[in-house]
Fold this sequence. Notes:
Layout: H1 35-63, H2 68-72, H3 79-83, H4 85-93, H5 97-121, H6 125-153, H7 156-161, H8 163-204
Amino acid sequence: MPDPNEPHDANASTLHGEPASDGIEPNANASGVSPHVWVSTTYFVEGLPYAVVNNTAELIWKELGAGLGAYGLTSLFHLPWNLKFLWASVLDRTETKRSWLVAMQLVCALLLFALGVFASSGEHLSWLAVIFLALAFASATNDVAIDGYYMEALDEDAQSRFVGYREMASSVATLLVKGPLLVLVGWYGFRTSFFALGVVLVALA
């Protein structure tokens, strides 16, 4: 029987020997990486291909001298993000969300490599359209996996605490594409620029 006069340590184990919660669900992040790191990197990865599709497709079409009709079709590249709810349930039934986000990140990297090849050639506009659409689908699927992983790995309080990290990381990705990437394109062309982005995604997988 515990001594009633013995001081109680609030930071010690709670009732039934369970440790106090720090907002991170047990076993959710098996690698042990701090959420400050993985939240920032995963949402940077989420924002990067999204920014590429939304900020460079029209630029490439203009550089290649595409007609007005083809130029207008670039709006279809945004469609996968509006339809991702249709296949979101598939991710819950097959594999883990961690497996999905790593796989989609590598797929996005491969598509960026392909984008660099075809964009630099100045030909095959139809193939460029296919690559951009595939990149959009892979990126939208990655969004579902990342958001699901975030919800599973952190409890509600922790999710609220890291909202700022999510927004910051996505904003940095957008700024990188709108600024430094375009400067890199001006200096070294599309091939080197998109290859560099692909390497970044592989490194963060």
